[in-house]
Amino acid sequence: MIEQKLSQKSFSTAILNWYDKHARRLPWRSPPGERPDPYHVWLSEIMLQQTTVVTVGPYFDKFLTLWPTVHDMAAAPLDDILTAWAGLGYYARARNLHKCAIAISEEFNGHFPKDRDQLLSLPGIGPYTAAAIAAIAFDKSEVVVDGNIERIVSRLYRIDMPLPAAKKKITVRAAELTPLQRAGDYAQALMDIGATICSPRAPTCVICPVADFCNARTAEDMERYPVKAPKKVKPTRRAVIFWLEREDGFVFLRRREEKGLLGGMMEFPSTEWQEETIPVETAIKNFFSNDFQKRENRITEKAMVRHTFTHFHLELQPVVISIKEMDKFVLPHGQWAEPREFGRYALPTLMTKVARIVIKDRD
Ligand code: SF4
Question: Which domain holds residue 35?
Answer without folding.
Answer: 2-224
